[in-house]
Amino acid sequence: xxxxxxxxxxxxxxxxxxxxxxxxxxxxxxxxxxxxxxxxxxxxxxxxxxxxxxxxxxxxxxxxxxxxxxxxxxxxxxxxxxxxxxxxxxxxxxxxxxxxxxxxxxxxxxxxxxxxxxxxxxxxxxxxxxxxxxxxxxxxxxxxxxxxxxxxxxxxxxxxxxxxxxxxxxxxxxxxxxxxxxxxxxxxxxxxxxxxxxxxxxxxxxxxxxxxxxxxxxxxxxxxxxxxxxxxxxxxxxxxxxxxxxxxxxxxxxxxxxxxxxxxxxxxxx
Amino acid sequence: xxxxxxxxxxxxxxxxxxxxxxxxxxxxxxxxxxxxxxxxxxxxxxxxxxxxxxxxxxxxxxxxxxxxxxxxxxxxxxxxxxxxxxxxxxxxxxxxxxxxxxxxxxxxxxxxxxxxxxxxxxxxxxxxxxxxxxxxxxxxxxxxxxxxxxxxxxxxxxxxxxxxxxxxxxxxxxxxxxxxxxxxxxxxxxxxxxxxxxxxxxxxxxxxxxxxxxxxxxxxxxxxx
Lengths: 270, 225
Description:
- The complex is a heterodimer.
- Chain A is of the alpha+beta class.
- Chain A folds into two domains: 2-37 and 137-265, no CATH class; 43-130, Alpha-Beta Plaits (2-Layer Sandwich), CATH 3.30.70.
- Chain A has nine helices and four strands, in the order αβαβααβαβαααα.
- Chain A has helices spanning 2-40, 54-60, 72-79, 85-94, 109-120, 132-184, 189-225, 229-233, 241-265; strands at 44-48, 64-70, 97-103, 125-129.
- In chain A, α6 (132-184) runs antiparallel to α7 (189-225) and α6 (132-184) packs across α9.
- The longest helix of chain A has 53 residues, at 132-184.
- Chain B has two domains: 1-84 and 161-225, P-loop containing nucleotide triphosphate hydrolases (Rossmann fold, 3-Layer(aba) Sandwich), CATH 3.40.50.300; 95-159.
- Helix content of chain B is 32%, strand content 26%.
- Chain B has seven helices and ten strands.
- Chain B has helices at residues 45-52, 75-82, 100-104, 106-111, 115-128, 144-156, 174-191, and strands at 4-14, 20-30, 34-38, 60-65, 68-69, 85-88, 162-166, 194-198, 211-215, 221-224.
- The longest helix of chain B has 18 residues, at 174-191.
- The radius of gyration of chain B is 17 Å and the shape is globular.
- Chain B starts with a strand and ends with a strand.
- Chains A and B meet through α6 of A and α2 and α4 of B.
């Protein structure tokens, strides 16, 4: 019982930190493609009196990345007007030019407004549709979720660190006497801290294995049954084998720093 | 190593600059000497012993232990020196979460001896201190006298050139005290180990020649002939 308690008191705070770290890695990885598609999927529509090339657009605003002309016939088809061939050709001829524009990066709403006003300076452009509301609501919701999640992770990590500090005080109490005796008999710093290092490295390895196991289960059991498309599409990104080594490295680093702080704080008895 | 195991010249010890504990002491302790240091409580007997194992640096004068100048000794030299010392404390200073055997072989473990050597040495020493069969016990399962015998066995584990003992029989029964004095006499006679014992009184039945230093309340040391 004492053995389990000794280990759990370090494994729990370590796991809190490792879960936070892994959630951060996974969240960043799985949402990266979603974020990209949000940005890449965005286009603005421009109506121009005369034909315009990409260079014409770029001369008004440098954020223009790609310009695609929307065929007039496609527009007529979409509005589904049934006209005789001659009249149809005349109507098509009289229609202005429609362009779909992609931007080189994700812009804020104010930046979008600036692009719009720049393009409007052109006398050829008669109308611009930026689809502000859809763009903004989708991206802001996504950003808010990401921010909330990251805040939660930071909070969890801070709690984990405080629990480890508490554990260090317990270690100090439990191991100080032994380390002092060993120092009197000439043990080196490494030998004095060997017991503590062994104990904490075992806990660090266990924490990394358990945390990896949690994500492995999430990946292979929970996500495959879920209806959240963002997760389903990125199921392979939820856990990589390399994550285990990242977690292991992080947990061992944390415990070694903790052990070192305990050892250097143990003063020889006067 | 010089013939003098301990050399003090105008040695002054103090915990702070205002009060001197040991005052301007000069003495020599040779290889194979058995030395008792006596004096009233608070006279600085234990403080002197601490200076011998490097737990307190001299405030003034010189102190040389086993050829090393303790006034300017560097950390790793001190560590090295301590692996050649045997120290016995009045409060035993055993590691309570370790077995008796592991406590006894601590100096051998620190020095990196093999498990076989440690085990055979532990058996031999525990036999000498009359604790055979208690190898797997923990210190807190033993009486005070038995714990101190473990402490003495530990001090002798690596055949040190110098054993420092601070009130080793202070609170012990007669049997344990006798076992400890016998062991120390044997170490001194057979192994030529230098032994320095801080005590309130010298045992009545002591079978080998010894030297006696007395410290007065002012921290002055003199040899009693």
